[in-house]
Amino acid sequence: MRQQSSSGFFLAFYDAFSPKASRYCARWPKASAAPCCPRYKLFSTSSPSQQKKSLKPQSHYDLFPSTLQAGPPPDGPFAIDTRKLRNEFLQLQAKAHPDLHQGSDKARAEGLSSLINEAYKTLQSPLLRAQYLLSLRGIDVAEDETAKVEDPELLMEVLEVRETIEGAQSEEELLPLKKTNEKRIEGSVAVLGMAFREDDLVRAKEEAVRLRYWANIKESLDAWEKGKPVVVIH
Predict the structure, then answer these.
(1) Coil, strand or helix: which one is 22?
(2) pLDDT per residue over 75-104, tens digit each?
(3) Are residues 63 and 116 in contact, defined by beta-carbon separation less than 8 angstroms?
(4) In 126-226, where do the E strands start and end?
(5) Residues 78 and 61: beta-carbon distance below 8 Å
(6) Distance (Å, whole) CA 113 – CA 214
(7) Which residues, in sequence order, are CB contacts of 198 under 8 Å at separation 6+?
(8) Between the ranges 49-58, 106-115, 198-207, 216-225, where is the mean pLDDT highest?
(9) pLDDT (tens digit per residue) in 120-140
(10) In 3D, which of 95, 87, 29, 100 has the Cα closest to residue 62?
(11) What's the gap between Cα 58 and its chain centre?
(12) Is 187 exposed, middle or buried (0-12, 13-18, 19+ CB in 10 A)?
């Protein structure tokens, strides 16, 4: 049998993830992040016995089998080695580059490149990753503007931070606040890790909303300009 070229394989891989394809592959093994369908033979690393194990749906995690071998939580950890993820992302993009293809294959390569970009952007951000994982379970946090933490102390803290940022006269004044906010983000990520590991979706949703506050504050701190109004999106 003639083997597929590396670029040809990646186009076939895109076909499986394309919106035109089924969202689920009936022959995708839970034990391996690599596809096992015949046309993905070059990519499959699982043994026949592994391929008989229970199935899992396709997701952004399946695009990065080297970095995310265990798959999404609760099977795999919420935390991700972002350096490894970026290295694999660059390798994938090099193989899927549209300039390597011609005709209709070029359009498919562009689609695959876009898909890889979207997956990487989502997974490298703790907030977007948490929102994505919840969306896979039918919980919409990213688009739900009514999703808020019913915590008066938290809301008061957010308002105080906004006033501090607006009243700052220099970036140096904001350095302590930046350090404090980084610790808040780290704390939320740790809570999300435990929640997803325990498959506690209620807690994960609540903490994802909380993290959204801290992430918005970080954006406001990074984009600070003297006298510029601060808008903290809830």
Answers:
(1) coil
(2) 999 999 999 999 999 999 888 877 777 677
(3) yes
(4) none
(5) no
(6) 31
(7) 74
(8) 198-207
(9) 999 999 999 999 999 999 999
(10) 29
(11) 14
(12) middle
Tokens 């199935």, located at residue: 55
Q: 193 is written with which tokens?
A: 């890790």
Query: Which of 24-33, 122-131, 163-172, 188-197 bottoms out in mean pLDDT, i.e. has the lowest?
Result: 24-33
Neighbours of 226 (CB within 10 A): 9
How far, in Å, CA of 47 to CA of 128, rounded? Answer: 33
Q: How many CB atoms lie within 10 A of CB 48?
A: 7
Measured CA to CA, the distance from residue 109 to residue 111 in angstroms comes to 5
Question: How far apart are alpha carbons 201 and 139 in whole angstroms?
Answer: 9
The pair phi, psi for residue 55, each rounded to 5°, is: -100, 160
Interatomic CA distance for residues 105 and 100, integer angstroms: 9
Q: How confident is the model at residue 183 (pLDDT cuts 50, 70, 90)?
A: very high
- Beta-carbon contacts of residue 1 (< 8 Å; ≥ 6 apart): none
User: φ and ψ at 131, to 5 degrees?
Assistant: -65, -40
